[in-house]
Amino acid sequence: MSSQELGTSFSDLVVGSDGQTGSSSDPPSEGGVQVTCFTEDLHDVTLHFQIIRLSKQIYAWIGCNTAKFGHLYAAATTRPGNTVSVTSLLGGTSDNTGSSMARRLVLKTGLNIVLACNIPKDSPMLEAAAERKLVEKLKGLGYIRSKAGEANNSNAH
């Protein structure tokens, strides 16, 4: 499947718990799934993004020039101390492209993160630019928690 077909197939699809679909501009319903896809041209490469918002977690995929899946990481807060743990679900452990990004996304969203990433491991500038674009989109979708909320959450524990 080409990356254009991928974008066309999944672009702005929302699937509710009742099986209904709508655009991603609709607010996600309780128990629903919101899917957002977009493409950015950065540093002479094309990055494809897909964000799937579930009730208590976010799945994000970043594809570099292709629709390949890449390495898959899961990140979540752990107790005590609300530190973030990250594990590699698919792909080698020697290539940590994406694991640090998954950790930072948990800290910014307060949600569990599953991140698939196929950015080349020798491209730290591209990885940083991809993370910035992903965070911008997550912020625009309302998935990034506010600084005041982070302070309140830390005081509550």
UniProtKB/TrEMBL annotation:
Query: Which Pfam families does the UniProt record give?
Result: PAC4 (PF16093)
Superkingdom to which the source organism belongs? Eukaryota
Give me the stretches of Polar residues compositional bias.
Answer: 18-27
Kindly list the biological process annotations in GO that this record carries: proteasome assembly
The segment annotated Disordered runs over 14-33
Query: Which PANTHER family would you find in this protein's record?
Result: PROTEASOME ASSEMBLY CHAPERONE 4
- The name this protein goes by in its record: Proteasome assembly chaperone 4
From which organism does this entry originate? Arundo donax (Giant reed)
